[in-house]
Amino acid sequence: MDLWLSVIPPISAIIFAIWTKQVIPSLLIGLWIGSFILTQSFFGSFFKTVDYITGVLTTSGNIHVVLFLYIFSGLVALIQVSGGIQAFAEFVGKYINSSQKTFIALWALLPVTFVDCGFRVVATGAIIKPLAEKYKIAKERLAYMLNNSSSPVVLLIPIATTFVGYIIGVVQNGMDTTGIEGSAFSFYLQSLPYQFFSYFSILIALATIMPKLNLGPMKELIRNHSSTKADLQTEFAEDMSHHHKAETSKDQTGNAVKGNMEHNHDMDQEPSLKPKLINLIIPLLTLIPLSFFLMIGSEESSKAMLVALILTLIVTFLLYLFQGLKLAQQVDNFIKGGNKLIVTIGILIVAWPISMVSQDLGLTTLIENTLSNTISTTFVPVITFVATATVSYFIGSSWGSWALMMPVAFTLAVATGSSIPIIVAAVLSGGTFGDVTSPVSGMTAMSAGIAEADHMKYVKAMSPYNLGAGVLAASAFFLVPILF
């Protein structure tokens, strides 16, 4: 069989994803095409496709990741309904008296909103939006700060986030494709020093807290907003009682100009308990230390995180039960929260087998025979970053681009002798670029919606900052292999 046929499944998936903006159907098409090439039978290809999908669900590590994502999203929903976020909003509001302090508060909320980038945007937006109105902050500027304090930051936190479980899944996928042994979590940890896009985008966002350091369309928006809002008086107490949310649609990948199912956490629901800080703090103080403790010396990091999450869920159930939140209501909200990540779980379930079918067709051998002698190790990280960033920008999904590109990047890294941690960082950084920059990204739409900013004005205003961070990141990925 011609080894070049092995590139057809992943390339087909990428092309269809860019064309349709639908990651799951695109992955399924790529998987079916690969199965058809293998079986040379129309009906047999469907049986083979089912075999691949059911095969990945019989692996314990994959099940750990799926359960972690579902349970974690359910836990986030419980924390929301408990009133913990509202209590924190009321607490923070007492100490803010300027626009710069409002942005400082936005970043200071990270310790209680880092668990998921969608949760981060929605929860922080609900707290900061009334303050932003009071101190006459341009809506596009608020949207930019919300967006760039979410995905780029959450990516760097290696514990107790929805990102961790998903990243372990896609990195393990790349390892399986190339036959690399070891810990997917360890490769992720080793990649953190090289997450250049996150670092540059965060630094630029922090710098723009100072109005004088803004430029281009954002600077003009700030100037116009300040002049038109000069006489506006905002009733702070009234605004703090309202919650704002993005207008989101629910499509199969979470990628639409008005929606994102990857990170969909609704803050509209009124708390069922009297708002108390303890309802937010205790779950976090249980999950984070417990995760660290159980992962020490564990050979299966995904299982350790899952056990820590289950124990935290039990503590949270009991905490809210003693306060009067009925068990039936907790279970209902937990299931609703877990269901919000069904699409993300679906992406994983069809992304895992597409790397398997490519491997069965000989993708690893092809890259070893052709690219290992034609591409210098120096160029592999920057090529990987730019390619992933391009895919992510066009499909509007970091998680989708990670699933598509990680197996290919791993194979290229092994064939050329490139550093695996740097390649992992290049894929994750590239996906994050598209997540916070693409006009069709759900996170971009969510941030604009929460801030009540005009979507395209916001995209135009923030693009110079994120493109600048992207250029700096690409330069870093080029220089690191040379210098080190």
TrEMBL record:
Transmembrane segments: 23-47, 67-89, 104-132, 153-172, 192-210, 277-298, 304-322, 334-354, 374-396, 408-428, 465-483
Top-rank taxon: Bacteria
Domain Na+/H+ antiporter NhaC-like C-terminal, residue spans: 155-466
Subcellular location per the Swiss-Prot or TrEMBL entry: Cell membrane
Family matches, as InterPro entries: Na/H_Antiport_NhaC-like_C (IPR018461)
Protein name (database record): Transporter, NhaC family
Species: Virgibacillus salinus
Comp. bias intervals (Basic and acidic residues): 260-269
GO cellular component terms, semicolon-separated: plasma membrane
Keyword annotations of the record: Cell membrane, Membrane, Transmembrane, Transmembrane helix
Signal peptide span: none
The keyword Transmembrane helix appears for this protein: yes
Membrane topology: Multi-pass membrane protein
Predominant location: membrane
Pfam families per UniProt: Na_H_antiporter
Region (Disordered): 241-269
Keyword match Nucleotide-binding: no
